[in-house]
Design brief:
The chain has about 375 residues and is an alpha/beta fold. The chain has 13 helices and 15 strands. The strands form two sheets. Strands 3-2-1-4-5-6-14-15 form an eight-stranded mixed beta sheet, sandwiched between helices. Strands 9-8-7-10-11-13-12 form a seven-stranded mixed beta sheet, with helices on both faces. It starts with a strand and ends with a helix.
Length: about 375
């Protein structure tokens, strides 16, 4: 199979979907790898590093799309790429379809086989290709919150950990999954007083056992979120509904009760955001203010630390990319249920329930298309 590695063109996105080491593995499996020129530079990987690993450097995305059986990205295809995608071509990347009807309809019209990193499921029920970026984004959420809590960045001018004689900041983390746990760990490490909310009592018991003493796991409810929003200096939204839009857990009305200069970090913005007032931002313009509350809603947070993120991402995605390339997408999906779950839009049909529900589209079970 010919596998194409594309340069990211989303604003301030410096990651690349495969390292030179990953290219070497693909080549050992007998696959040709095309890498768009300068695709890895933002992550610290030169074109020469890719050629030494056995890749062919290609000048344009048009050539990548025209020659490749499977193309790989980090972020979803951008509008300029829509006309380049061919019917039956495998596109393997983070899609987050439920957050964009335009993207969904464009991929339906393309007839491509869209396999989404974020909905592939591991044998233990985990989301193995979402996990590494969730770990990065969670840790970054606390880091960015600390930055934008500074007065010079529009915040209250509060140090998350305080100092002797001065109380620390209060941080509310909504969601006790991978993102929330890593965000809470970082905020605790900085010395903040951290509340982490989740709706699973089993998860809260686990967090109570493993988290530091300055972290307080609490059952999530609208009433609890309203109450803690008034106390919080920072709120981190870390709620994920598998393949569907994120719920709006902090409302516009709640902002009026919050401290002026409080910081909201919406890690769920890729899935539509879990704050009512959220809208996607970029690394070049990361924040905006509503009712005196600073909103940080960068949709590709890990793109700010591309070396870490690219290596972590390749570690997770490479085994799946190899399997799809070795066997073809149909056989790979038949043999591995987790890859079947990754099928979102296939040959003009929506095959993932969360995407169909988001836009009122007809759902076609992926199994049906495997027989064609």
């Amino acid at each position: 199979m010919v596998v194409g590695i594309l340069k990211e063109i989303k604003v301030a996105e410096n990651r690349v979907c495969m390292t030179p080491a990953g290219v070497e593995v693909m080549r050992k499996h007998g696959h040709d790898v095309l890498v768009e020129a300068l695709a890895g530079v933002g992550s610290g990987f030169s074109d020469s590093a890719y050629t030494e690993a056995g890749a062919e450097i290609v000048a344009t995305p048009q050539e990548i799309y025209s020659r490749s059986d499977m193309v790989m990205h980090v972020k979803e295809p951008q509008p300029s790429e829509y006309p380049l995608i061919r019917k039956g071509q495998v596109v393997f990347t983070y899609f987050h379809f439920a957050a964009s009807e335009e993207l969904t309809r464009a991929m339906i019209d393309s007839g491509a086989v869209c396999i989404a990193y974020e909905t592939i499921v591991g044998t233990d029920g985990s989301l193995p290709l979402l996990t590494p970026m969730s770990e990065v984004a969670g840790r970054m959420a606390a880091q960015e919150a600390a930055k934008y809590a500074e007065r010079t960045q529009g915040g209250r001018g509060i140090l998350l950990g305080g100092v002797p004689g001065v109380p620390p900041a209060t941080v509310m983390v909504i969601g006790g999954g991978i993102v929330g746990t890593h965000a809470a760990q970082m905020a605790c490490g900085l010395g903040a007083k951290v509340y982490i909310l989740d709706t699973s009592l089993e998860r809260l018991r686990y967090l109570a056992e493993v988290m530091p003493k300055n972290c307080f796991p609490i059952m999530s409810s609208p009433a609890m979120i309203r109450e803690l929003a008034q106390e919080a200096d920072v709120v981190i939204g870390a709620v994920l509904l598998h393949g569907a839009k994120a719920p709006k857990l902090v409302t516009r009305e709640m902002l009026k009760t919050m401290k002026t200069g409080a910081v909201l970090v919406d890690v769920a913005i890729d899935q539509g955001g879990c704050f009512e007032t959220s809208r996607p931002t970029t690394h070049s313009e990361p924040t905006f203010e509503v009712d005196g509350v600073v909103h940080y809603c960068v949709a590709n947070m890990p793109g700010a630390v591309p070396l870490t993120s690219t290596v972590a991402l390749t570690n997770a995605t490479l085994p799946y990319a190899v399997k799809i390339a070795n066997n073809g997408w149909r056989a790979a999906a038949r043999e591995q249920h987790g890859i079947m779950e990754g099928l979102n839009v296939v040959l003009g049909k929506v095959t993932y329930a969360g995407v169909a529900e988001a836009f009122g589209l007809e759902l076609t079970p992926g199994e049906v298309l495997l027989q064609q």
